[in-house]
Amino acid sequence: MQKKDRILEKAIKVFNERGYHAVTLTDVAHACEMSRGNLAYHFKYKKHILNDLIIKMVHEVRNIQLGRKDYPAFSNLSLDVRTCGTLQSKYRFIFRDSSVLEHNSVKRVMKIWSEISIKRNLEAFAFGVEIGTMKPEPFDGLYHQLSVNAWMVAYYWVAQQSVRTVGSYEEAEKMVWSTVIPHFTEKGLAAFQNFYGEEYFDQGGISVAALQREIQLF
To answer: Which domain covers residue 130, as residue numbers?
Structure first.
């Protein structure tokens, strides 16, 4: 690992432990077991470390997203949620601090990411209607709202964990699907069960029979 990469990895660790604003460049230097002057050779200001971490995060997103299907599919929505979860786990200091999210480089990346995610979700729902796995919208704009909700659940998952106790069975991915599945057709539910298995929701106390009843009610 190159020295600059090692600095970034150590910076992530101390930022996660103490928060971005509470950490100084001297703290990062100590974590890297180098002098403040040596660190300044690579990063003159703390914001430069943050900028490089954002670039690093974008590259990681692209690598994870190589697993996407070329067409709208169940797995794509799940992959987007899992991608967000992976990043939130590694870069907790970003997602838990609104002031860090307001940093120019962070805000720009998050804005693009949110717009792409919401657009992809909406395309997947539209494709589902086209092939008969999702019902037509009961009113205009509902699937756009579901698309935004799916992004919000994934994006704010770490933040909400700081204000309430989250059960071990609670997962962002399952929370997203629980709002989408009631809009599946019987064909859609069968396809979902075939891909994820009938036991997918069992730990959350949601049974397949209950999902089928929900579908019939909508």
So the answer is: 68-217
Q: Which CB contacts under 8 angstroms, 24+ apart, belong to 27-36?
A: 32/6, 32/7
CATH number of the domain encompassing residue 89: 1.10.357.10
pLDDT at 218: 40
Q: Which helix (H) or strand (E) element contains residue 4?
A: helix 3-18
- Give domain status of residue 167, yes or no: yes
CB 210 within 8 A of CB 159: no
pLDDT of amino acid 169 = 64
**Which pair of tokens denotes residue 91?**
């870069």
Report CA-CA distances (Å) from 2 to 6, 42, 151.
6, 11, 35
* pLDDT at residue 215 greater than cutoff 60: no
Is the dihedral angle over the CA atoms 184, 189, 190, 195 positive or is it negative? Answer: positive
**Cβ–Cβ under 8 Å, residues 172 and 85:** yes
CB 215 within 8 A of CB 184: yes
With respect to residue 186, please indicate whether it lies within any of the assigned structural domains.
Answer: yes
pLDDT at 214 over 50: no
Report the pLDDT value the prediction gives residue 23, as an integer from 0 to 100.
Answer: 95
- Count structural domains, the chain: 1
Instruction: Assess whether pLDDT exceeds 70 at residue 209.
Output: no
